[in-house]
Amino acid sequence: MTEKNDGTRLDAEAVGTLERVHPKLPRVAAGVERGTVSRREFLRTATLLGLSAGAAYAMAGRLTGEPFAPAARAQAGTPVAGGTLRVSMNIKEISDPATVDWSEKGNELRHVIEPLVRISSDNVAVPHLAESWTASEDLRTWTFKLRRGVTWSNGDEFGADDVVANFVRWMDPAVGSSNYGRFSALRTSNDDGSSMLENGVVKIDDHTVEFNLRVPFLALPESMGDYPCLIAHRSFQGGNWVENPIGTGPFELVELTVGSRARYRRRESGWWGGEVYLEGIDYVDHGDDPAAPLAALASGQVDMLYRLNVEQVPAARAIPSLVLYQADTAQTGVARMKVDQAPFDDVRVRQAIQACIDHGRLLTLAYQNLGIPGEDHHVAPVHPEYAELPKPTQDYDRARALLAEAGYADGLDIQIDCVAQPTWEPNTSQALVEMLRPAGINLAVNIMPGGTYWDRWTTTPFGFTSWTHRPIGTQVLSLAYRSGVPWNESSYSNPDFDALLDKAEATLDVEERRAIMEELQRMLQGDAVIVQPYWRSIATASSQAVQGYAHHPAEEHHFEQVWLSQG
């Protein structure tokens, strides 16, 4: 063994490997040995900077002396080819992949079009259409090598032109893609202060793309794994993608009827990733009644559910023919206030609402205690840079005093909008009614069909919005709270927050990043933008015939390794 001045106790070959990937990686490895960096954070950082997942897992094990391996898939026996996997899931409109805003829409797309980087079921960024990447020491220049031998279903070769065309669309604010906020590090400014993409994404050759950033951004590869980042063919410039669904993925879209069904068949020309066992996938929409999908699974009409409602977990567990999957996640819901609309434009009103909340009680009342209480800052304990803060406490005296200061000593009447399904969302909103009442806040709950709510989720003054899992805290903060981005539903705009978020995204050292995140978390709490009740454990179920499935914390469906047993 050799000890270098960075403090890493690894053999010279291992240290050399880390240094070739990025000069700062040996210091991250030293943090694992000191106990200041977790194995999972080392794994995440090493893969983000370009170390292969296999090498990163092996080195994480060596650093601690304990085996460390990817999460196993549920599988027994030897895979067999054939059969169609039937899945119950709501079928939604997916006309433009750049503007999809539901996880279900991502699942409808990702069997056909694919990302440059995939987030695995254990939250690791792994190469997909990108074969590898490297980062400059200052994390401002990233070079992505694209996978060769990938063909689109129309026969075209996949390459750099496809990647550049997608990023140009994403970074056009007129398109309205959430990627405009997700990749804000790519944006430069015009003289009038408006944003533009200039020399941010450069084709080096047919299989190499360079990203030049205005600020360092450690999570660039990780951000490419989110569902609005699926790569469409370069010819797609808007319109209805379903009318000509060209893809690089393992399946082809056969039929998509919103609210009814989506069918896929295995690509006859083969898939670049190897053998695909299923002949096809058949999604069936059973509507908004959560009892219908479980009944369909129990009776053998489908093989798998997209999601189990939390109230259904005990029932599913009691059916011996089913397999239950559960995962702790960063999925949540936020009761968010529009900070530029009365009465929520007064921070004292927002702080008074927060002061009424018992987060642990909300978790028990609305989600059967299957999760972790929230802290009103949208950064989860499962996020690597999460900073532990004092837990929020319920304080009605403070709430009443704040309301009086704001001019509402006689009480306040407000309304929250929410969807009817899944039931945990209206249940949480109803629980808020009881918690706000003792402070003199009368909350009316307006329960809407999903389509109606999602038409106005960014404009309603007070709304309850579900947010899916994302692997890091900075990513969701950039999507939801950075000034001017499409998914900033609260209209929160704080230049100090934006600058601090830039700094957090640029910081490699996890301890330094956690210190910055602590400031960001306190800032969101103090500005009282949201009531964030709890972090959700999620569940789904399948028949015992389904093999090779790994439950993803963001409920992503990756079915190329799934097969159906015949027994």
Keywords for this entry:
3 domains, D-Maltodextrin-Binding Protein, domain 2, 24 strands, globular, disordered N terminus, 29% helix, 567 residues, Dipeptide-binding Protein, domain 3, 5-stranded antiparallel β-sheet
Task: Describe, in plain words, how this protein is organized in 3D.
Strand 10 (201-205) and strand 11 (208-212) form a beta hairpin. The chain contains 18 helices and 24 strands. The chain has 3 domains: 2-64, no CATH class; 74-303 and 545-567, D-Maltodextrin-Binding Protein, domain 2; 328-536, Dipeptide-binding Protein, Domain 3 (Dipeptide-binding Protein, domain 3), CATH 3.10.105.10.
**Total E-strand runs:** 24
The CATH architecture of the largest domain comes to: 3-Layer(aba) Sandwich
pLDDT averaged residue by residue: 91
List the strand order in the largest sheet.
Answer: 12-13-14-3-15
